[in-house]
Input
Amino acid sequence: MHEEIIFSGFGGQGALFAGQLLAYAAVDAGKHVTWIPSYGPEMRGGTAHCTVVVSDEPIGSPLVRRPTTVVALNLPSFDKYENLVKPGGRLIYNSSLMDVQPNRADIRYVAVPANEIGETLGNVRQANVVLLGAFLATTGALPLDVVESALDLHLPERQRKYLASNKAALRQGAAHALATLTPAYT
Amino acid sequence: MARELWKGNEAIAEAAIRAGLEAYFGYPITPQTELLEYMSARMPALGRVFLQAESEVASINMVYGAASGGARAMSSSSSPGISLMQEGLSYIAGSEIPAVLVDIMRGGPGLGNIQPSQADYFQMTRSAGHGDFHPIVLAPSTVQEAVDIMYDAFPLAEKYRTIVIVAADGSLGQMMEPAEMPPMRSVLTEAERGAWAVRGAAGRPKNVITSLFLNEQELETLNLRLQEKLKTIQMNEQRWEEVETEDARYLLVAYGTVGRTCKTTLREARKQGHKVGLFRPISLWPFPTPRLRELADQVRAVLVVEMSAGQMLDDVRLAVEGRCPVEFYGRMGGVMPLPDEILEALAEVEAKVKAEVEAKVKAKVDTKVLSLNLNL
Amino acid sequence: MADRNEITQEMVLEQGNVVYQRPEALAETLTHYCPGCTHGIIHRLIAEAIDELGIREKTILVAPVGCAVLIYNYFDVDAVEAAHGRAPAMATGLKRTQPDKVVLTYQGDGDLAAIGTAEILHAANRGENISVFFVNNAVYGMTSGQMAPTTLPGQVTTSTPTGRDVKVHGYPMRMAEIIAGLPGACYVARRAVYDVRTVRQARKAVMTALKTQLAGLGLSMVEFLSSCPTNWHMTPVDALTWIKDNMAPYFPLGDYKVADEVQALQ
Output
């Protein structure tokens, strides 16, 4: 197993945290993992992204030019990364915030109305976790319950009250992705 | 201890604390600030000293003071801050005080930016301050290696009464990776501290720590002794990693983050059937010259890759001494080279070497033909 | 009557007639200070106070860059040599890791009031529990007489050959007043050593500064107006008069900060 994922969105959408959650879970699952953020002024607004590499082998470069999966939380991220996804890879995107026409036939697109799902769970800011759920279901990179225990351990203190709804967000994102996957792609 | 996910800066801080760090002095600067923040919470909780100084100048002199008393003391900073510390580093070197410094390098010159860089190589290995001295400079390429190097930095500094700099770039400071922490050491006991330390002249003659030797003979004697010590360090403390060098025809030389990036390049190149090896210096000073020289006899060419305009390149050339061509690929300004562009650079080196070999063979054949013609 | 050459130290001690002797905290050695320079008096005052308080074995002295750069040769205490102006930072490192020790800095006007202003201001502001002895002689002595931050308006130095022009070089800095304005400084005084009366007052101030540290109250500083006959181009006696007539009016002697806790010590 070797997955190279970029999570990207507006600052504050939680792209970095979604990547961290995946990284924590990967450690618990005994994988090699690196998480590397974009950092600096963009942390305070603008776009923020992180690159997560999860692998059965020791990891060389923590940065990648052609990720196997991109999780786009906003439109600029979709536009920026659509052409960079490795052939055969996936682009999982937040369809609540963009109305897009896929341009490539050699990657899989997974549209997830992450903001809507987050809102029905009472917190639009869980869109990042919804999309992480969709990523897990699409790739089978890690079991959902490993990520759930990562949430138990690593959700920041001030957001503990959202623990249950974060878990629900993860499950619903996964369910939504599974429902939209066509057999041809599985 | 289990493997846990750590941010590079915080892992380095925790490893230093576990190494028995007694006092930390620092000043915020991106991309090392998490190191200082981590210290600010953890050190007081352990009853140890944390102080945010008014500048890097003050930080390093506070380290100088604390370490003069025999305490395990350190600071951390990033490139512009290290420039400010050079005065203090020189004094620490001149008075032979063991001290540890972490440099999480960023793009320069000037204010530059906060993205990763390796452009402080010269500053650390060549000119960490005025006068003749070299700190030991160790460059980790993973969070785990940063932890291991940091944990050993104090005993190493104390063994030689020298400065140890842990040199990483901004990406290693910012990235998260699993690491296993070493066990907690307590701070040094009175008995474990150097007899040279200033702790009050109780029942013994006074100790004086100074780098001032007005008499030129005396200062030359000190310098000769420092040079002897540096030679010993050069003999004992060279560290490096080799990857698939046994049958390598082409050798990548890179350190730190670029060193690990080259591992991805190497895998890809091997997959394509190229006999590529990697030599990753871990000690930048002392540079692992002898081993690299041996390898230079075995390979057709060396490709040095750095996040700078080519600084370690000088040391590689000094090691190779013309045994094979030394080529360079570098990115600057905070740009991190990716595996595919290094692979392209490697392909160019191979093509160049092959073209040269072919030209030589052709020249030989031509000469033969010419001499044959003459014989006729 | 015995020849005076035959009077030994032991004989004097036996008769109990000692009225003046080298303090234990001073090393038995010659100094490099110029004739008439008052560094020697200030050294002695500090050494006497160390003896009187019985703290020689737990004192750590931080030496400056300036004329007193070799002060560690003249004191019989543990010492470190700081970079120019950085003594308060070095003292901070020492005191924070060894709070049970007595940490002193001894700094000149270039060291403390020019290159090291950031370090002294922040050490004072943090209330570092150290004692600072600041020797102000209105000139850079060691480098042979250039303008100091405390050089008086109109004063001729080797770098102000027509006299200090305040429009070009600014005004002399009154460090005691500046430091006294910082909450972390507990005891700040300016003294001189140009006659018996001022020397006695200075000695008391040194004692108060050290007691302030021993009581853990915060930063204490004594500024001394000191003479430099060599670079002022004066006889030692004229130099002392010059302090009284010219320096003291600009840098008034007195206590600039005596915190209540310090008052209680006296």
Q: What stands out?
A: Residues 140 and 146 of chain C are 5 Å apart (CA to CA). Chain C has a mean pLDDT of 95. Chains C and A do not touch (no CB pair under 8 Å).
